[in-house]
Description:
The chain is α/β, with parallel strands linked by helices. It has helices spanning 16-21, 49-57, 69-81, 98-112, 127-142, 147-157, 170-175, 181-189, 213-227, 244-258, 270-276, and strands spanning 4-9, 25-27, 30-33, 36-39, 62-65, 85-90, 118-122, 161-166, 192-198, 204-211, 235-240, 262-267, 281-286. Helices cover 42% and strands 24% of the residues. Helix 4 (98-112) links the parallel strand 6 and strand 7. The protein is globular and about 55 Å long. The relative contact order is 0.16.
Amino acid sequence: MDDFVIFTDSSCDLSAEMAKELELTVLPLSVNIDGKSYENDLAGKILPFKTCYALLREGKQATTSAVNVSQFIEAMEPVLQAGKGILYLGFSSALSGTYNAGAVAIEQLSSRYPAVKMYAVDTLCASLGQGMLIYLAVQQKKAGKSIEEVRDYVEAQKLHLCHWFTVDDLHHLRRGGRVSATSAVLGTMLNIKPVLHVDDEGRLIFVDKVRGRRNSIKALLQHMEETAIEPEKQTIFISHGDCLEDAEWLASQVKEQLHVQDVIINYVGPVIGAHSGPGTLALFFLGTKR
Length: 290
């Protein structure tokens, strides 16, 4: 069996405990809020999740930064020196430059360590969609699959990893250029909530808009009902922007209506939360199509 390490980045939004259990190496992106920079560590030690969302609710301005090539090289080289391969599963290249930095690092390192296997995969995923795909990849690794077999599995599954989400505050999407200022103001006045997904190119796409928070959450469930592949056999992932009660309600509906046994819930981390805002709720599962 190949001896290799799975690398990813903190946009996977897995808990620190799960990342440790899965034996991942996770490189942190960064968020700058109100002029102060923080690493997006999965444990929320540097910037606690609740603190992050409190700052966003106060209207603090936030920007984000990708992992750079030198950071990847610094983290990867000791693994390669130990003779272990690397499989990097990165944040969608349509949403961040992080994947490209990881791929460049691997290209540069491959000339220094030609005998060691190393690959980069653009997951075209985000948040716990990325996290779920990594979780599934680790199950393949634990089953004894080679680094190439795990890479090919991820490539085959990534466009079946469905991302459906809604946000509570349109003004965060406005700041990111996702909606116009007029649409944000009118939508807020009319209690309009968008339903979005991540498409086959890894981009955030508006699909629908509904009136009211509960209806927007039900829309996520409806999309899962329409496309999920044997949901009762899946472990489903839900991420939330400091709205745990909504996440737990969605989990209860997934279990009740689709007979899902296992649901993993975690925060939308500060990097993605800076763009989507408090009240973001996302549902991830394997489906016939995105």
